[in-house]
């Protein structure tokens, strides 16, 4: 990485070093990528020092904005427990009483799960950043399971008390479908000077 110049006055969102690589092959585009814990910005070799500083800052700002859209603030487990109480009160007359509600990084095949015997609910970390009504719908689903096993008529009747259940299910079906599709673009942010 000896062709990289470290910008000491600029840092990534988590304090990463910002390194700039000048490329004789680049004519117009500027890109930013993550490499080995650093942010690497590739610019045309013909850029002036001023253009280099301006584009380095612009690309770091764009990456921060892109990543903040991708990873909204995570709710804490305490916030999940408060949400469970709210959903239970509003839609189940306060009958469901979970003992704990936590995020789980071990759930990749389902959105949530519960253990009625001990009253625990786990929500997939993949729900983080999804619309609130979607998270609340999955919460409602698990709360109903604390009261009713299976997905029979009694379960469906209780779930019907959540007005956005069908809309949330449509959203989750779309996410599930999209996960099986190849991504439209990579993680790189690339822009030609003069655009954006």
Automatic annotation (TrEMBL):
One Pfam family in the UniProt entry: YgjP-like
Gene3D superfamilies: Metalloproteases ('zincins'), catalytic domain
Residue span, YgjP-like metallopeptidase domain: 105-168
Domain of life, per lineage: Bacteria
InterPro entries: UTP_pyrophosphatase-like, YgjP-like_metallopeptidase
The protein's name: M48 family metallopeptidase
